[in-house]
Structures are given as structure tokens and as C-alpha cells.
Amino acid sequence: MPNVKADTITPLRSARQEPRFILHLIARSKRLAEGGATAVRRLDQRLWSQGFSRPLKTAQFEAPDLHWRSHLASAYRPTLPSQKTTPMARQLSESSPNGLTHLSPENTFKAPPMPWFGLDIGGTLTKLVYFEPTDLEQVEKRSNEDLQRIKNIARYLTTNKAYGDSGHRDAYLETPNLDIGGCKGKFHFIRFPTNQMNAFIRIAKEKGMADLASTVCATGGGAFKFESDIYREMNMRLNKFDEISSLVRGINFLVNFRCCAELFFFPDPDVANPQGIREFYNPDLGFFPFLLVNIGSGVSILSVRGPDDFQRVYGTSLGGGTFLGLCSLLTGCATFEEALNLAAQGDNRKVDKLVRDIYGGDYEKYSLPGDTVASSFGQMNLEDKRKLATKEDLARATLVTITNNVGSIARLCARAEGIRRVVFVGNFLRVNPISMTLLAAAMDYWSQGQMKALFCQHEGYCGALGCLLELMRIHRSRSSSPYPEDKKGEKL
User: Fold this and answer.
1) What is the dotted CATH code of the domain comprising 78-259+459-492?
2) Shared fold status for 78-259+459-492 and 263-347+391-456
3) What one-character DSSP code corresponds to residue 136?
4) First to last CA, the chain
5) Rounded to an integer, what distance in angstroms lies between the CA atom of residue 205 and that of residue 212?
6) How far apart are CA 400 and CA 56, in angstroms?
7) Are 461 and 127 contacting, i.e. CB atoms less than 8 angstroms apart?
């Protein structure tokens, strides 16, 4: 592939080729939406083979699609291009450690129809992000009937914290007012069990979603599993996006959105005190590279070296779904919250076999403390131990087993990748200080202080938010120059 020199754009070879170039750009937008980066790359290679130079204005990226994707995935800001920049957006832009910039002001942004929803439909839990506009009448011209439906949906979602028996809005995660493509509003975060998807579809239909031209983005396996159900019941097609890309994009946005301190850590993690002191992590101290550990039903582990430079390096089937499944079998609990409540009252040492149960104390040669778990559930082969173990003890042992397994794999992956920051996300960590403290203590102890465990305030919603931002990116690229310019000399 030809290299690109900084701040140069090679003109078209001849004027008669311009129509073909424009057609290529239109096809490029369509391929990006339908086939992703690979399809776009093939189109660009075809253009280059006909003698065109790469229509970019940057020297930082080699792949033809990375200029778009890096600029808009990580540089996504609360304010998109407009004639005026809000004070908050200006502050964000000026304080950004990465030099991230917006598209040039002369570019316009055609917002997709409201309401806007981002869905991450996982194997156990569905996460929903809803953008509530501050002043809908100024956002788009809709019929009075449509505006009333949209207002009714907003009122239902934002005035309730519970929906039916199992839907919940995490009001404490609500973002401050922000500006998305000239649309001022805020994000709300809602969750419900995936096995209640039919109830969600029924409520959405009752609230008039089927009669609205709305924007629903979806990621996760359920975006494919439930696509036909949603279309059949609501005549609505989902805008589907890759869950790994959505996850990274969502985290990048939240970390760079300085009005909410997203990352935090435990400066002195104490397993005996899971409610210990937390401190917010300043990304100015360094964010990339980091290992991203997403603990959902299962676990995916990503090596993230830049806003658009990431890959899945490992995973395990033993995750949050395993914890809930085993707890349900062992204790009869019905929900994740119930399982965590049991675990908080239990003692895994009555179930697990510890180093001191084998050595009578510490294993000093290899610096293994006596209270280190040597064998998970290792005491349960003894009848007298089984009789003494309570439901709470079994739940605690299950939680410790899953958490220790995730922590061990994460540390080994970080070591193999040469990465010192490990970011843990996923709904397994929601209201779960026990696991967060265990992970923080393990990463610090076994790496001798060389690795730091970081956690997110919006731990389970990064994917849902990221897929919604991805749709904003596509709409922005279609309504503005396909190759937005970066500030000269600044890296994304």
C-alpha cells in the first residue's frame, strides 16, 4: 500500500474521473454500514488500483478505514460539528490529553430520527441506553402526534426507576447534560433480564414505538437472536453493530467525557473490607495500552493499544452466568442480586481448602499466604464439612472461585501482552464490591505492584452506549466530508 505524507492530498488524476470517485465514496458509506471495515478496504484497494491516491489528510494510519474509525471511535465528544461549540464541549476539547478534535464547523450533521436507543442484548442481561433530548421541538420536525408519542416514551422511561418486575433504571449513572450532534440531552441507563425480552417488546409496542420512525441500535448475540421477533411485532429493523467494537467505543467515550469521573481503583485493596476507599483514576496519567476484561455471562479479554487498535486475546466460559447458575443450583436463589446478598454474608473458608489447611501455615518458599485458596470447594469432599457449610458459604465460595479464575487469566494475559493497566467491566461487577476488591488485591499482590486494576462507573453499559455512538458516526460521515480532517500534528 502507498504511504501517505502528512498534510497532503493528491488530486484526482483527471476531471472526468471525479464522478467515479464520488460514486466510490457513496458506495464506501454503504459498505461500511453493511459490511464493516473489510468491505471498505476492498473498495479502497479497487480505487487505488485505478490510479487514485488515498484521499486522506493524515500520516498516522496505514489501513484505509482507520482514519474514520480512530477519529470517530475514540474522539467522539459530547459535541459534534456545529456552528457554535458549547462551553462544556470546548472545555473537553481543550483539556483532552489525546488532542482529540471535532469535525470542522462547516460540516453538518443530520441526526437520525428520535428517540435514540442503544441495546446490548447479552446472554443473561440486556442493557439499554436511552438519549433524552432536552428540547425535542428544536431537534427535528415531526408531526404533533409523533412528538406526543416521543414525549410519552421519555416520561415513562425517566420518571420510573422500575419497569414491571425485573426492569430497572440505574438513576445514579445518569450523565450530565451533553451535546450530541447539536442535540442537547442526557443518557439514561436501564437493564432487564434477557429472558424478559418479549415483555420489553410488548411494553415498547404499547408505548407507540411501532408507530414511530425511531433509531434502535443493538449489539450482542441477542441482536441477532431477537431481530426477527422485534421486526415481526414492531415492524422495526435493528441497526446491528459488533459487540467488541461497541464495547471499546463506549469506554473511550466515557473516559474522555470529563464530566463523569469514569475510572476508579482501590489504592489499598483489603479483601476483608470490600467497601474500602476508592479513588478516581486520571486518564491523563496514561490510558493506552490497557487490557480490557469484560465479565458478562462469559468473559472476553481484549488487548487495547489505541482507540482503534484492539484485538481479542483470550476468554473463558466461566463468568457471571456461571456464578448465577451454580448459585441457583447450590442455594436455590433466583436472581443475581439474591446470590450476591447470600455471598456477602458467607465465608468461603468453610468450603474452600486453603494453603494453611495443607501446610499448617504459609508456604514461605513461594510466598503463598496461608489464607490463599489452594482448592476451590476442596473441603466439600468431607461429610462433616458439608454439614457445616451454609447457603451463604456456598454462594461466597462460588463468587470467590469465579473471581479468582478471571483474575488469574487476566494477569497472565496482561503479562503476555506487556500491559500494566487492566480495566474490568461487565455487569458481573455491578453492586459487587467483593469481586472488585478481590481482583484489585490479586492484581496488585501477584504482580508485586506492577499492575493496576481499574474499574468503570458504567461497568455494564459500555457496549450499549458504543453501538449508539457508532450509528451517530455513520450518520455524521454520510452528512459531511467522508474523510474528516484532524488537527495538524495531533494524534488520535
Assistant:
1) 3.30.420.510
2) yes
3) G
4) 21
5) 10
6) 50
7) yes
Alpha-carbon span 274 to 433, nearest angstrom: 5
263-347+391-456: which CATH topology? Answer: Nucleotidyltransferase; domain 5 (3.30.420)
Q: Which of 31, 51, 55 is nearest to 42 (CA)?
A: 31
Q: Is the peptide bond before 176 cis (omega within 30 degrees of 0)?
A: no
Pairing status of strand 309-316 against strand 183-193: unpaired
Question: Average pLDDT per run of 10 along the chain, which is 492 residues long?
Answer: 36 39 50 55 49 35 32 31 33 34 39 88 96 75 83 92 93 86 88 94 88 86 94 90 95 83 93 89 92 97 96 97 98 96 97 97 93 97 97 98 97 97 97 96 92 96 94 64 32 28
- Residues known to be catalytic: 243
Sequential DSSP letters for 293-353:
EEESSSEEEEEEEETTEEEEEEEES-SHHHHHHHHHHHH---SHHHHHHHHHT--GGGTSE
Please choose, from the candidates 388, 395, 379, the residue with its C-alpha nearest in 3D space to the C-alpha of residue 332. 395
pLDDT at 31: 54
CB 14 within 8 A of CB 5: no
Number of other CB atoms surrounding residue 338 within 10 Å: 16
Q: Are 100 and 492 in contact (CB under 8 A)?
A: yes
Which residue bears the cell 476508579? 264
State how far the alpha carbon of 218 is from the alpha carbons of 40, 118, 423, 455, in Å: 21, 6, 23, 24
CA dist 127 and 131 (Å) reads 14
**Cβ-Cβ contacts under 8 Å for 355 (sequence gap 6 or more):** 362, 363, 368, 369, 370, 371, 372, 373, 374
Contacts of 103 (CB under 8 A, 6+ apart): 80, 81, 476, 480, 481, 484, 485
* Residue extents of the structural domains in the chain: 1-64, 78-259+459-492, 263-347+391-456, 352-388
